[in-house]
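One such given next:
>
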Amino acid sequence: MVIDLIDGTYELFRHFYGLRRFTKDKDRPYGGVTGVLNGVLEMVERGATHVGVATDHVIESFRNQLWAGYKTGDGIEPALLAQFHPLEQALAAMGVVVWPMVELEADDALASAAHLADADDRVQKVLIWTPDKDLAQCVRGERVLQVDRRGKKIRNAADIREKFGVAPALIPDYLALVGDAADGYPGIEGIGPVGAARLLNEHGPIEAFPAKVLGGRRDAALLFKRLATLDTNARLFDDVETLRWRGPTDAFAAWTDRIGAPKLLQRALAAQEKVEEA
């Protein structure tokens, strides 16, 4: 079986702002939600069988206690923020497994789900649907892959090394050195992507760096690595079979009415029939 793990937060942002190009900035109350539902259902129609979606139920995590400048929900437009919880509810009504994260982030959920699925011999492949460079650390050979819709690429371990200059396992170290503006930490001044890759390939992880390499900046680098390291210990499921999509729940009809997308219900029911016939 193939496991499809979707970054629901990223997809909501993508569809919300993508829709604006056609609505001249007049935001539909559930426009982003409808876009995500359509995308997930399209995956099912194309043959996806086991699907999980991770979301940021709260736009903060334990990392905010570690670094004051770490990202928060500040600055997210109200029209977009108002669609986070409805997205979780609508996906669940469509019969999709959803992980709304509170103390951890959606990225941690994706990493944990990938880790759990990778450990199951029944799983042939795990696809992580997000362009977020944090998730590159989860890629394993040809088995756990990162799907970048934006860049139209599917990356295996060799692709990650080609893109960043380091193996997937060293991505947290790489991000610690170069920083991540999206997550709100600066990295180590004077070390860019090329320099970071060179240091990591020469010395290994930051903990193995000779003292002279970072000097007094070592503690900061280790802190940033902690911020960049995804938690793979969330026990999201005990059996990958719980991720199997079996069709919409009875509540989905009301949701399609609420968001003004009745065709989604028809498509979901049609997809359910195919699943039951298979």
The two ends are 14 Å apart (CA to CA). The first strand starts at residue 2 and ends at 7. The chain has a mean pLDDT of 94.
